[in-house]
Structures are given as C-alpha cells and as structure tokens.
Design a protein that fits this description.
This protein has 208 residues and is an alpha/beta fold. The chain has 11 helices and 4 strands. It has one domain: Rossmann fold, CATH 3.40.50.
C-alpha cells in the first residue's frame, strides 16, 4: 500500500494487476516505508499506530489504512486500486512464481498442477481482490477501482484525481505465457467462478 499526503491518495496494491509498475510512478510521492522492527511489531499485532508510523506491507488491505488514518483524511483521500480478471490473474501469478526460485511459495507451486493451485489459492485471503478493498464493516471502500484490461482509461481517472502523469508507465514483472483460457480444462473455469464469486460479481468479470 502507498499513501501520499502531497497528492492525497491511498493506493491498494493488488497482486499481478500492474501494481509494481504503478509503484514506479506513485512511490516517489508516497510516505516512506517504515522499516523499524518496533513499528512492524505494533502494526502486525493490531496496536493503534498513526499512519505516518504504520509499517504497511506491500499488499496491505484498505482496512489497515482506515484503522490508522484520521477519519477525516481517510474520507477525503482518493482511495483506488487496479483489479484483474480472476481467471487470468490466477494464471499470471502461477507462472510468475514458477519463474522465481527465491519466492516463498516457489517450491510448493513447482509440485502442483494448475488445478491443484486453484484450490490452494482459494484458501488464501490475499488471492481474493474483494478482501483487499473492504472496509472494517465489510463494504467495498475504494473511490475508484480500475481494471487492468482497460488500464489506459483507468489511469486517466487516476491521473485526474492525483495530478500525476502515467504516460511513461513501465511494464515490469511480465511473464511470457500462452492465452490464459488454454490453462482451463473440463470444469476448472466454472470452479474458479464459484470460488471467486465475490470478485466476479463485484468487478463484473467473465471467463470469456
């Protein structure tokens, strides 16, 4: 997560949805990352910590900003995220982790089929985009949720709200792979639709 006081935004970084690329533009305007072990300890254990001192993880959920920011700032700051088709996002992360031997889940995934990976991912809260964008009351709390599939249009909205220029957005962490639909056999696509129903309904995605 990135929070900027100068440009008054809260960016929720969704995995495999252009977040690393966006950070190249957003991070220079955001609060510096808190690396001290004390702030990390307090933040991870739910102690009340002001957002200037909160040790936000890269993929922290929106509710953490809600809990650590003064209510008036949280209400007025532009809160946004970019999401991605759940079927394609699963393929993208699966292939990405397999190319990264130092990734914490590389060894586990190298012994999985894609069908097994789907079931494994479904049990991880971080694999569901809706969960990252919920407030403490369970409602979605972003002012704007853009889509990777229409990134230029989404970034035009973000640019207008933040005053930042995304014309030189880099493309990082890209992995070469075949069309995501070719990974799904038999009833696998339907299974993802069931397991990621909240994402599918909230962001209006389909397999096709």
């Amino acid at each position: 997560m990135l929070i900027s006081d100068s440009h008054r935004f809260v960016f929720v970084h969704i995995r495999k949805a252009a977040g690393t690329s966006l950070r190249q533009i957003l991070a220079p305007h955001a609060l510096p990352k808190k690396r001290h072990w004390w702030y990390k300890l307090l933040s991870r254990n739910g102690w009340p910590v002001h957002y200037h001192n909160y040790a936000f993880r890269k993929h922290a959920v929106l509710a953490e900003a809600e809990a650590s920011m003064p209510a008036d700032l949280f209400q007025t700051y532009f809160k946004f995220a970019i999401v991605r088709n759940p079927w394609e996002r699963l393929v993208s992360e699966f292939e990405y982790i397999k190319t990264k031997p130092k990734h914490s889940r590389h060894k586990k995934l190298s012994n999985m089929t894609f069908a097994e990976y789907i079931e494994y991912q479904s049990r991880r809260p971080a694999a569901h985009q809706v969960k990252a964008l919920q407030l403490k009351n369970g409602q979605l709390g972003c002012d704007f949720v853009g889509k990777l599939e229409t990134l230029p249009q989404s970034l035009s909205v973000v640019a207008a709200k933040t005053g930042l220029d995304f014309s030189a957005l880099p493309h990082v962490n890209q992995v070469q792979r075949r069309d995501y639909r070719s990974y799904y056999q038999d009833d696998m696509a339907a299974r993802v639709g069931e397991l990621w129903q909240a994402d599918v309904e909230a962001f209006q995605y389909t397999f096709e």
